Amino acid sequence: MACCDLSSAFDLIVSFESVTDPKPAPEPYLVAAKGLGINANYCLAFEDTDVGARSALEAGMTVVQVPDLMPSDGRFAHFLAPDLIVGARRAGLVG
User: What residues have CB less than 8 Å from 5, skipping those under 6 apart?
Assistant: First the structure.
């Protein structure tokens, strides 16, 4: 983030170094929810990989998966979508 000067655009950044048990464990998502003061069950996660989707699902979040480089059957997602806009629509974020 620092190389692109994007850190000021985020309230919280959770990285590999922020946790002791990284993805596919749910800890990264649980740390993010706690840091934002939000119950993980009220969070919506967008992920591109099965590893990330599994992590978010095990944290108790609703998961939208938009596969990028690796195809997926969506087994760890509530919604499998071809792109972010379709995923946002399926999750009820946009009409």
Answer: none
